[in-house]
Design a protein that fits this description.
By secondary structure, this protein is an alpha/beta fold. The protein has a single domain, classed as Aldolase class I (TIM Barrel, Alpha-Beta Barrel), CATH 3.20.20.70. The protein is 38% helix and 19% strand. The chain has ten helices and eleven strands. Strands 3, 4, 5, 6, 7, 8, 9, 10 and 11 form a nine-stranded parallel sheet that branches. It has a two-stranded antiparallel sheet with strand order 1-2. The chain starts with a strand and ends with a helix.
Length: 250
């Protein structure tokens, strides 16, 4: 069991918020194969506020799709809060995550996603606004850096996120510049883990049970996010859980 703020979750191996992929059907398949915790797909706050018709598809409810978290993409603290309040009228997630990790250009142009790694004061403001006004834990999905990894700055940023009210940090071990290429920087994730007292999850190339264990061993993280590793092999969750317990594959 892992505790994120007031939320108690029975697993520390989560299905990541895969935009354009992890819809209800995908999540339910993964849950059949051992995914005990999942995220709704990433949601843009502008779409939620403008109610452009996509929200119901993104946040379809099912009794077997629990526990679950929601993730918001945005840059303005007030808009983030407004979107969160609207969203929480319809769903009851275990916690609410702020996306500071998406590296694609169309998101960066909005000064959202991984762009927030380059202007952390804006990210702190979002975290503080949501954490102080919502009655559920607020977390952050982040990158190891923007253009490069600076362990000292990353550690300081992590501490400031905790001070702002973050209940957990999900760290993709690559920079924005790397996108999804190159090696995962385990040292960066470890630096975050060593800097804070809240749960830290490692993300990036958790593609097999062996790599999941390596993530735990190299970083000391409290949990892992499985993203691309679940595509085409949803049973990876069963495999990871068994491998972590026994050292053998089911």
């Amino acid at each position: 069991m892992i505790k994120i703020g007031s939320a108690k979750i029975d697993t520390n191996v989560f299905l990541a918020p895969l935009a354009g992929c992890a819809d209800l059907s995908y999540r339910l398949i993964c849950r059949e194969y051992g995914a005990g915790m999942a995220f709704y797909e990433m949601a843009d706050v502008n779409s939620i506020i403008r109610a452009q018709g996509k929200n119901k598809d993104l946040f379809m409810l099912h009794p077997d799709d629990q526990p679950i978290a929601a993730q918001l993409l945005g840059a303005d603290p007030d808009m983030m809060l407004e979107a969160a309040k609207r969203l929480l009228q319809d769903i009851k997630p275990a916690f609410l995550d702020i996306n500071a990790a998406c590296p694609v250009k169309k998101v960066l142009k909005k000064k959202a996603g991984a762009y927030l790694m380059s202007e952390p004061k804006g990210l702190y403001a979002i975290v503080e606004k949501l954490a102080s006004n919502l009655d559920l834990p607020v977390t952050v999905k982040m990158r190891a850096g923007y253009l490069k990894v600076d362990l000292k700055k990353l550690s300081a940023m992590s501490k400031d996120l905790q001070k702002a009210g973050a209940a957990a940090l999900f760290v993709h071990g690559r920079t924005q510049k790397q996108l999804y290429h190159g090696k995962v920087d385990y040292a960066a994730i470890k630096a975050v883990k060593d800097a804070v007292s809240i749960p830290v999850f490692g993300s990036g190339d958790v593609l097999s049970p062996e790599l999941a264990k390596k993530m735990f061993d190299e970083t000391g993280c409290d949990g892992v996010l499985v993203a691309r590793g679940s595509m085409g092999k949803p049973w990876i969750f069963e495999q990871i859980n068994e491998y972590l317990k026994t050292g053998t594959l089911p």
